[in-house]
Give the backbone structure.
Amino acid sequence: MNVSGGFPVRVHTVLTLGMAAMLLTAGAGAQAPVTLGLDGRTNSNPTIAALGDFVTVSWSAAEVSSMDLYLATSRDGGRSFSPPVRVNSVPGQARLSGDMPARIALLPRSGKAPEVVITWSAKSGDNWQLLQARSLDGGATFGRSELVPGSDAHGVRGWHSMTVDASGVPSVLWVDHRATVAVDDSLKKIPQAERPKADPTERAQLSWVYHSRFDGSAPTRVAPSVCYCCKTTLVSAGKATYAVWRHVYPGSERDIAFARSDNGGRTFSAPVRVSPDHWQIDGCPDDGPALAVDGRGAAHVVWPTALSGKGTKVLTLYHAMTRDGKSFTPRAALPVRGPAGHPQVVAEPAGGILVAWDEVIEGERTLAMARLRSSANGKPTFVPVKLEGTKGQQRYPSLAVSSGGSMAAWVQQVEKTTTIQVARVP
Amino acid sequence: MNLDGAAVRLDSLQGSVVVLNIWATWCEPCRDEIPQLQALHDSLGARGMTMLGVSIDEPGMGSEVSDFARSQGMTYPIWLDPSRDVAAQFLTIGVPETFVIDRAGKIRFRLIGALRRGDTTLVAAIRAALDS
């Protein structure tokens, strides 16, 4: 079997838990994307993480009414991957989405493959849970699924992110709606059509961003007034921890907020508004910000917002940067070719900032990438990056930096078949 | 597909006025507007309006969407669009969004965000499409 570019591809069919699993491995030196997925399932919501040559990719594999979380690992920088392993210990219980994928932390261990820590969302009755599992054998097996510390409460939560600080402790940031439960319970006795409609800004006061370290310490409530269903991003760099999320400002304006911690997430600064976009919507954008910190300690935020034009609104992407965590550069537009969203960003070792997103071109979602370049006058510009070998529709990219360079994973859909694609970014 | 797993197409509804509501079970503003959408379905369905809810919930949520629709008293058709093809075609910027599509298949009205109580713009657009 050949793929575009003429590189040889070996097809392995393996059986995992009684289920046909599909694994394609690109030949040595190939630039063509590697395909991961389970036959007969809807494969989506990828996350890629890397530490040196060790690369992991997680994704959801769903049937009509159930979803599992799978992970595959590579020890050769992403050229080939192991057969996928189911992570969730209760079959079918995972509940991921595009803005709520699993998150992976790789903890270095001397002379061994990294410890793999993975967190994801699941549903149990009316409650949404945040679960975690660990692998001490390089992702070959995972321990029992357990609750993320501090997330054990009624109500809905998710849209989480994860990082590892300089001392090697993972921590998680998430959106938590436990405070809405009491209010909602008090309204249940009133017929739904007669219930008072809460002002969106007031209602958002009940939604909080939580932060929890995996070291036994109590979770931190970072900020209230959080947009209900957009992804968060948490990054540790040096001694600092940075967090971004979509906030609900007065007037139901859904702009991006940023906070910094200098004590490992025990406390965070007051939220800073990244850009006064004033996007007003009484709904769910379902599309949150991304964040990366470069080698000089500057935090780069990329986010979607809506622009007005020709009698309607359209999503586009912006970038802004802060060095002191208090003030941001003016927003700069990314070179999108159509309505764009679902951004991801990584800082590359050579100093580059790589951004990936998906955009709608003639009714179909397409993967797009660009690198940040600063011009002589300091104004940022972005240079588009072309990834070869993509097919069909592509959406929800994820980025990581391995020893061989930046890598991307994304959902590819060709007719009704969805797979996860993994490729090195040129 | 619909909740029974059957393949469906929007163009099968051509000839009727379609109110296309794109929503998700996890979307609070979507939940808030359901009683109003259901009331429109009850009052204007017989006049040739088709209320259609398109859920963008992820694959794997099929039974949860069914359970949710039942618990909310939604009797209008619910379709599943986990790959968000409809959202891409209609260039939505979030959920909920509601479109009024006339008998010729032309979009006559778009509402971004939830329908607020007392907002008569949607029903006015539906009536205008039905009367044209």
